[in-house]
User: Fold this.
Amino acid sequence: MKQSLRAKRMAKHHRRLNQAPKLNLVSLMDIFTILVFFLLVNSGDVEVLQADKSIKLPASVSEQVPENNLLVVVSATDVMVGGRSVGKVSELLASTDDKFIPLETELKYQAQKAGPLKPEDELTGRPVTIMADQGLPYAMLKKIMATCAAAEYRAISLAVTQKDVSADTGGG
Assistant:
């Protein structure tokens, strides 16, 4: 029996609809490959310290990348080492000593946990990063740095936010 053109076209259409749909994976693979390369290129340059929202870090044009050192955080109310509070800022301000004893005690404990210094690190000491508000009085910062140095943490870094050099007008 001979079919009409319309019947042939309808039969072909029904056969095509009854087949399982095919997914073109080539396009998806291209998209995911580009996405992976994008993430790899853009993720390796930045290292961020865990910042306390109450601390406003000073701005700097420093190009050095922060290292993963012991972190001393001085917030508006507390002095913390490694996320643990060791004293209050009011105690630090009230202290007449050159060093802050609770901070020194904690730093010596952390140094004891880390083990003895290597002979090549004897002169420079252990590394520490101080994260303090830009409005912190210099005398308080000096006391914290002296305490760190007394506890063998003499490789001191100060945490800052990176300032764009092009935005700096230079007058000032």
